[in-house]
Predict the 3D structure of the following.
Amino acid sequence: MKALRNFVDKIKPQFQKGGKFEKLESTFDAIETFLFVPNHVTRKGTHIRDSIDLKRTMTVVIVALLPALLWGMYNVGFQYFKSIGALDSVGFWQLFGFGFIRVMPIVIVSYVTGLAIEFAFAQMKGHEVNEGFLVTGMLIPLIMPVNIPLWMVAVATAFSVIIGKEIFGGTGMNIFNPALICRAFLFFAYPSEISGDLVWIADLKESITAGIAIDARSGATALALAKQNAVANIAPVSDLFFGFVPGSIGETSKFAILIGAVILIFTGIGNWKIMLSGVAGALVMGTVFNLMAGSFPDNQYLTLPPWQHLLMGGFAFGMVFMATDPVSASQTKIGKWIYGFMIGLIVVLIRVANPAYPEATMLVILLMNVFAPLIDYYVVESNIKRRLKRAKVKA
């Protein structure tokens, strides 16, 4: 490591002002600060100094995402071989290897496209490269179906970085979660590639055409089955929790997501108030629908236990990794409770009440991204009024 540090210090002057490659200073700085903690220090005033910067924070989030990524790779292989009836003839490494080969290109395309745009914008503006895409680049593959064409991933990633973030000023200035902007773009631009029963299992459409898939409905998710009034056909709770079900690459295993949540909460990077209030909102709305079930006997979705909503679709992944985005979420303490609660409440409301849209997590979080500043505004105004009233009483 010392040798690498010496090498970096040796070539650094060539990338600084007056050097041979001064136009690439932003690119060099991004690589250097990724490898080593920046040596910038404050010159005036009193400040708390430690080794944690934005890159290190982003790295912790990536570590928290790894369990979901690794399980997603395994589950891609599991679902494929299960759909063709060959699950008993393959082992763990064959399942994982198949998934690795199918998932890694999506990860690579996401990072190459996004980072290329980030570096280009940094060079044009003469600024440091924003670190935010280190996490966004991993989130994007995890919310994609395995069959998504790579060129669509590239186009959607470019859209999310340019339209969802850079036009607002870059990392820390965006009002929407960039990864969700990417998914929303695909949902509205190419709906057939990100919804339905054929996109969640690798090559399912081709397998059905070739006559080797044993069940054409094997790609139906729990949410799709609930919408079809086939609640009895939903996978067992254990499969929903551990992730032996079809779905987006990183959303299937709630156990892996829970590990990520513990890492984020323990390190103080993920806000537990938003996660907990989101769960509370979903349980409240689910309970309300249970009470209404007797009035609508034809809708089996109303009878679904409230806690089961937490295990279906992308709710858990969204609440842990998307809703807690510190840039687009509410900033005040009370605002976080309101923000998370409303996400959970509205997600279950749309899932059950809207027959055309079984998965609501993505659009609900984007909706609440819009209302987050308004929530904070009224929380702050309420605090000001309460303190003014208290001051008048004392006077």
User: Anything to note?
Assistant: The chain has a mean pLDDT of 84. The chain has 15 helices and no strands. The two ends are 63 Å apart (CA to CA).
